[in-house]
Amino acid sequence: MTRYLPVFALFLLLSSVQAQLPDSCKLTMGTNLAGLADYGTELPFVDLMRNSREWYTKSEGDPSFPFNSGFADSLALRSDGYPTHAPQTVNGSEYPQQVATIWGKTDGWPLGEYKILWDGDGELAFFGTYENLQRTGDHRATFDLVNRIDGVVEIKIDRSEMDNPIHNIRLLMPGAEATYQEQPFNPLWLEKVDVFETVRFMDWGSTNGWGTKEGETGDSTLTDWAGRSQPDYYTWTHSKGIPYEMMVRFMNDNDKDGWVCVPHTASEDYVREMARFFRDNLEPERHIYVEYSNEIWNWIFPQTHWANRYGCEIPDISWPEGTTTFIQNMLDVWTEEYADVPERTSRVVGVQAGWLDVAQRVAFNVDAASFDYVSPTYYFGFTEEAETELDGLGANATVADIARLTRQSMPNSFSYISDIKTELADVINKPLAFYEGGQHLTPNPFGVVPTYEDALVDIQRDTSMYNLYNEWFDLVRTLQDGEKPLALMNFSFVAPRSPQFGSWGLLETMDQDTSVIPAPKYKAVLENMAGECSGVTSTTNRGFQVAELKVFPNPSRGQFTLAGVSEPLALQVFNLAGQLVWQAERHLAVAELNLGDLPAGNYLLIAVGWDSGNIMRGRVLVK
């Protein structure tokens, strides 16, 4: 696909310089981070115990030997989540219950020797697809992972003494034993994520259904600050997610900005202490976006049902208007806590991109002074007509079919977010910041295995996906205005392909060799991220100086040659009324410029370096 450097519209009128960003600076992209899961391929921590599955139980002595006896909810646990002892006698079982955890997928794990360390008095048992398991001490064991595909690892607590129970189990990646406390983050993950300046912690914080068990909505009880996720808890795959301490450490240690989601059942105490925690512990130069929960209009999530029940049904207020009470309360508290340093935070109101009416009824019922951004998604996906055609093609569908129907669907996808801008954000004079987006090529209904599954998976590695992303970003760029790039948070960073639940990751594994396994989405995102645009995004706050551009002969009858430049330029000419009267997308600096049939007069010529982004201006007289 042909790529053009955009025209940089800049004109001088009544001694006032106003700037418009070139295309290469119009988008700034961060990414959502994947939540922890025992089957995940995004592995941010070298201690894999952090993404172990929550405990399940096994009946000691049961001849039927079920994988999971189902008594985890009956276990007596310490504050760090470890069992007070094992085995345990529980109501409803004639057998004592042992305690186990598992990693059901090792596809993203690095090969090599793993170390298992633990504290306390007891015995651990191990099962898995590893090799060469060795017990090297009372509290140590090792194994070798030589084939990670379709692998599994299980650790079972056979015995744990009540006066000194087993706790602090660590499963360390190869080479991490000497450094895991000083550097808890996976170096390979750090290397991959370093390209992004901002990360969204929505899934890190287990925002969807926070604090509830699967299938539950929860009651009206609000959670105080003491009930947040704690750093010493045995796993961070639980319903309260990764502790804020690790988010702050990652941001400070790696010079990243962040985007956090306040749990939907957070009390005022929780919200206030959370705001103070990030304000007081983040380095002053670190910026934090804040949002209430996530998609509280999306009925697949428990927080939506909770907000509807306690914000709408019980107080008898219409939906979605009643849900805005929770948004407003959070924003007010966060605003108070950042009152002395408002520049360090951005407050966003999430809205539904695909339903303008609902989006308006949310945003218009929140005090406009209490937030900074309207935040929709920027997904592109299939129209109903495209899905119908794919269903008809079934197993005969090809990657070309997926690409063709996606491209045909793009205008429909874009119309949703364009309407959010013109009919909502512009109405209340708020900029956009997209909380997630990218390709949303999934079956309908979501969660079924489509008959065209092979093509849906294959396109994730195909050049056509790279082209689709570039075309989509070209559309999204048209929504940017003003002096700041448009913020887009990709969804998601590393995740495997799935025709059933979506192929969200830019990468499939962190060590993906893109010369062997293509990553077209990753390539497109990197190429479309705003480059070095300092001095371009603001002519006032950064004190940017526009360099002089010399043209000759001057005056002339519309033909000029540029002097003192050595690269191709994007050009625009304005009259003294500030109106664009001539432009060239790309022009060689040595070539003559023919301004055609412009009337005689005084004009302003603006040139932007094709490679450098440098801006020059000069006056030209047409005789």
Folded structure, characterized:
The structure is a single chain. The protein has 623 residues and is of the alpha/beta class. The chain has three domains: 11-24 and 543-622, Immunoglobulin-like, CATH 2.60.40; 26-44 and 185-528, Glycosidases (TIM Barrel), CATH 3.20.20; 48-172, no CATH class. The chain contains eleven helices and 28 strands. An eight-stranded parallel β-sheet has the order 16-15-14-13-12-3-20-18. Helix 6 packs parallel to helix 8. The longest helix has 27 residues, at 399-425. The two termini are 40 Å apart. Residues 1-19 and 534-546 have low confidence and may be disordered.
Total helices: the number is 11
**Low-confidence regions:** 1-19, 534-546
Structural class: alpha/beta
> Number of folding domains?
3
Largest β sheet strand count, sense and barrel closure? 8 strands, parallel
